Amino acid sequence: MGTETTSVPVTVTDALPLLRAGRLTGGDDLTGNRPAKHLIARRRTYFKQHTTAVLRGRLTGRPDEYHREMRRRITGARAAAAELWELVARRPAWRVLQSVQADGGALELDQLVIGPGGVFTMHTIFRPSHEVTAEAAWNEARRTQEILGRATRVPVTVTPVIVFVRTKEPRVVGSREGVEVLTTRELVPWLEDRRPVLTDRELEIVHLAARDRRTWAR
User: Fold this and answer.
1) What is the pLDDT of residues 15-57, one digit of tens each?
2) How far apart are CA 30 and CA 208, in angstroms?
């Protein structure tokens, strides 16, 4: 595994000083999140607020654009989740959290992946109908790194990954420096090929913090 360093806290208690002691309750444990939970909730709320417009669009063959975009994003997040479950089934050291939110909903991660090869944020794109840039994915990873670093005192580097779903030739406009761009078919093999950068203890510390909803609420 990764190399032990003196900068890493010696105990879990040292590493997670901001989290309350004791086992997580069901409401605080993010491991039970369904894929696309945040998107499903947003789509449901939008439908309640715009029921007439959504139904009219269905009848006229001119779907409500926002409602349709939410459906596409949900499909993308679920497809990436299915691939990542295969990774966890083959390599149990890897952990995947679905639908992670922070900053009052300003930060929304389709998936957060934690394993020997590092920490990764997944930004899924399903059959893009517009130009895709790397900025959103990069900002998600940067903010995630800040939150996990503050919560764990472990020097974590978070890598942003844009995952294109049902797209043969993924294309990102503008700079993509520091951002990995993959298709769903490429995702798991790419993760499995990452060289180990986290020790077993570092991995567990980061996962303990990441799965706790209170980490993201601070």
Assistant:
1) 665 555 456 666 788 999 999 898 888 888 878 888 888 788 8
2) 10
Q: Which of 78, 83, 37, 39 is nearest to 182 (CA)?
A: 83
User: Cα separation of 77 and 88, whole Å?
Assistant: 16
Architecture of domain 31-216 in CATH?
3-Layer(aba) Sandwich (3.40)
What token pair was written down for 53?
Answer: 């417009």
- Tell me the C-alpha to C-alpha distance, in Å, between residue 6 and each of 13, 64, 155: 16, 55, 11
What does the longest C-alpha to C-alpha distance in the chain come to?
Answer: 64
The answer to whether 176 and 134 are in contact (CB under 8 A) is yes
Contact (Cβ atoms closer than 8 angstroms) between residue 96 and residue 32: no
Where in the chain are the domains? Answer: 31-216
